[in-house]
Amino acid sequence: MSECAPSGNVGVLSERPDPALVMPADGLDELVAALWRRGYTVIGPRIRDGAVVYDELATAADLPVGWGDEQEAGTYRLVRRDDDARFGYAVGPHSWKQFLQPPHVRLWRAQLNGDDVAMTEEEVPERPFAFFGVRSCDRHAIAIQDRVLLEGQFADTDYAARRNGAFVVAVDCADPAGTCFCVSMDTGPGADEDFDLALTELLDGQHRFLVRVGSERGAEIMSDVGSATATVDDLARRVQIVESAAQRMGRELDTTGLRELLQDSLEHPRWDEVAERCLTCGNCTMVCPTCFCTTVEDVTDLTGQEAERHRSWDTCFSLDHSYVHGGSIRAAGRSRYRQWLTHKLGTWWDQFGTSGCVGCGRCIAWCPVGIDITEEATALRSPDGDAADR
Amino acid sequence: MPQTVDTLVLEAPVFAGLDPAHAAQLAGCAQTTGWDDGEMLFREGDPSDAFYVVRHGRVALEVFVPGRGTLTVETIETGEVVGWSWLFPPYRWHFDGRAIGSVRAIAVDGACLRGKCDDDPALGYDLMRRFSQVMLERLQATRLRLADVYGAPR
Amino acid sequence: MSTMTPSAYRVTGRRRDTADTCTLELEPRNGALGAPAPGQFTMLYAWGVGEVPISVSGLDAGGRLVQTIRDVGSVTHKLCALDPGTTLGVRGPFGRGWPLDAFAGADVVVVAGGLGLAPLRLAVLALLARRERYGRLLLLYGARTPADLLYRDELARWAEDGLDVQITVDAADADWDGPVGVVGKLVARAGFDPRNAAALMCGPEVMMRFTAVALAERGVAPERTYVSLERSMKCGIGQCGHCQIGPTLVCLDGPVYSWAEISRWLSVREL
């Protein structure tokens, strides 16, 4: 039906196997309930501590109804909307990685009986997740982590178990934040692929949701939810929403030749400049939906008979990250910031065949001193590190 | 004898390609010599009036450290030159030199060669360039050992 | 079984090689892991303390491993204190090893610095075991002092088997009859044909950088000069992100690299 020139992942809906559906706003309640009934643990956005976070959704009433966000470098604020939008925000500090690669997890326990060792690997909760309200940038981030943790020479079995069977309810982005640049990274704002269901919130006239079906189980679950076939106007409205969002990106990033540029810029003066601001706190790595570095801790009880291995999130900003006997390779903060940015935008290509960045802008908003990855990458293009060309 | 020493001198890599006229001048100050295993070539503080081109064998450069004993700080191998103190006053050896195994060498008289270099600057420049390169290599190697790369991490 | 779960091995032997280095012999308790190729490493787990990546220095037909460890931290200290009979954990083998098949017909110069002979020992044994495939075989070995030399009893045996063994130390007392100087000097004078030679190097990174220069000055191609590197590793399987050097992950793409592919990144300070 809609065949506009693609901008921001609109896609061509007429090629979908299932016709798009439309449901009233209350349909979300039915959908959430249906997911729980089918044995999923439903995770979605809700308000806590002044931010939109991801946590269990008992019902659709837990969604951040009527809330939006304002984001800038080093700034995040919830703002009250003048409507009842369920998904009226952009993204919060959480991403889906905290469920797929939890911040802290026990890998195994072991018992020593004289010479014998009994190892017990940790079991992963059996209930699969249903991720409710996945932005396109975040869906791309999940795909990036899949490549890193599942598609390399070895698979992360813990990640695989949590990822297995995860149901994705994607949601188009209508109101990007000042820190968003998914268009530059070709990851949004419309949810275009790899979902079971994709929602578009339509606020004109009757508050309703366009529902695009992306899988058989997506189609199956919609049999429990009251819906009708979407009209041509509904579909056209979606195109408008996504295109409008694509025009209102808060930032942009020129990715042309970026990998090679970063390779050749390892002694650029800009690194010294950003190092004067960077606290090496690692906030960016915690909020980034693709950062995957972890560390391992081996512990034992007082008797020494029982041992456990724990894995937790790590950050390349820590001195420990590059520690070999004698000292840390990346001793200076300058080197650690350089590692993070050149990996995210450059060497990720060498290691995993894609960029590591999805343009969600979280690192910009949640940096305490407001360091902006788009500004830094731009500054590296000029010999003296001047970012004024933005 | 000078004729034979001419050829022998040219065998050492540091003198490879030396102008035959310069080689002859150098040979005029040179003679063959040798030591048995364990013999001292020179001692720290001795007047340094010669340098040696090692033709066969190994010379250990040693320093005595009270409380630690004798330490070998470098070995000079076949084809290398030992001795620079003849170039500059007070012309005294700074280390002990000991033969490891039997050593055959060409000894070049320092005062003799200094005189010839004074008379023939071209000879002097040629030799200085060659000796400087060897000293540079030794310095680089010494600095690397100073970095104590094999040492236990702190 | 997850690749983060160690297999139980038993210590069958332990000896102290130098003041800060020990060698452990390990046998599998419940079935051996895959046979390591020369240059690969395992993650050794000291019960309740932690894990470290250690190159495999020896292997026998029964799956018994020989690994040489430098006692510098809490984990390695514990490993070097394990009595025969105690249990430890092993994961692996991991990594890309020395490409010995690529050197048929060539002179092979093995250059080791300090503990660097440990990751090279299996390669030396493999080269000697198929002596006829190669040209000249040399081992140029540098250590701090004579007391820091590893595998001393074997060095003489290897020399008898056809390995040209040359040893130098940074400093020595009067008991030492051999060369005193940097291993790069041995490279400058060693008897091999650089036009048809390959070099395998392992040692402190500084030593490898300088020795690579010496090899290049002799005319050995950087594509045929190989090094073994070391970085922080928490998993050994390319998932913790710690072992990166620029675009490469040492646990997957290394620890063995050709000088041609890796030197660019090693020359960037704190990369």
Describe this entry's structure for a reader.
Chain A has 390 residues and is an alpha+beta fold. Chain A folds into two domains: 21-247, no CATH class; 258-379, no CATH class. Chain A has helices spanning 27-37, 97-100, 136-149, 157-163, 182-185, 216-221, 232-247, 258-263, 270-275, 283-287, 333-352, 362-366, 373-379, and strands at residues 21-24, 41-48, 51-56, 67-72, 75-80, 104-113, 116-121, 129-134, 167-171, 197-202, 208-213, 228-229, 294-300, 306-313, 323-324, 327-328. Chain A is globular and about 65 Å long. Chain B is of the alpha+beta class. Chain C folds into two domains: 7-94, Elongation Factor Tu (Ef-tu), domain 3 (Beta Barrel), CATH 2.40.30.10; 100-266, Nucleotide-binding domain of ferredoxin-NADP reductase (FNR) module (Rossmann fold), CATH 3.40.50. With 271 residues, chain C is an alpha/beta fold. Chain C contains seven helices and 16 strands. Chains in contact: A-C, B-C. At the A-C interface, strand 6, strand 7, strand 13, strand 14 and strand 15 of A face strand 15 of C. Strand 4 of chain B pairs antiparallel with strand 11 (172-173) of chain C, so a sheet runs across the interface.
Short description:
Chain A is α+β, with helices and mostly antiparallel strands.
The pLDDT mean of chain A sits at: 93
The helix-and-strand class of chain C reads: alpha/beta
What is the alpha-carbon Rg of chain A in Å?
A: 22 Å
Global geometry of chain A: globular
Assign a percent range to the helix content of chain C.
10-25%
Low-confidence stretches of chain C: none
Strand order of the largest sheet of chain A: 3-2-8-9-10-11-1-12
**C-alpha termini separation of chain A:** 37 Å
> What is the CA-based Rg of chain C, rounded?
18 Å
The topology string of helices and strands of chain A comes to EHEEEEHEEEHHEHEEHEHHHHEEEEHHH
Low-confidence stretches of chain A: 1-15
Tell me the helix content of chain A.
25-40%
Itemize the secondary structure elements and their pairings.
The complex is a heterotrimer of chains A (390), B (154) and C (271).
Chain A: E1 21-24, H1 27-37, E2 41-48, E3 51-56, E4 67-72, E5 75-80, H2 97-100, E6 104-113, E7 116-121, E8 129-134, H3 136-149, H4 157-163, E9 167-171, H5 182-185, E10 197-202, E11 208-213, H6 216-221, E12 228-229, H7 232-247, H8 258-263, H9 270-275, H10 283-287, E13 294-300, E14 306-313, E15 323-324, E16 327-328, H11 333-352, H12 362-366, H13 373-379
Parallel strand pairs in A: 2-8, 8-9, 9-10
Antiparallel strand pairs in A: 1-11, 1-12, 2-3, 4-5, 6-7, 6-14, 10-11, 13-14, 15-16
Chain B: H1 2-11, H2 20-27, E1 30-35, E2 40-42, E3 50-65, E4 69-76, E5 81-82, E6 96-109, H3 110-119, H4 121-146
Antiparallel strand pairs in B: 1-6, 2-6, 3-4, 3-5, 3-6
Helix pairs in contact in B: 1-2, 3-4
Chain C: E1 7-18, E2 21-28, E3 41-46, E4 50-55, E5 58-59, E6 65-70, H1 74-79, E7 87-94, E8 107-113, H2 121-129, E9 137-143, H3 152-160, E10 163-169, E11 172-173, H4 183-189, E12 197-202, H5 205-218, E13 225-228, E14 244-245, E15 248-249, H6 250-253, E16 256-258, H7 259-266
Parallel strand pairs in C: 8-9, 8-12, 9-10, 12-13
Antiparallel strand pairs in C: 1-2, 1-7, 2-6, 3-4, 3-7, 5-6, 13-16, 14-15
Helix pairs in contact in C: 4-5
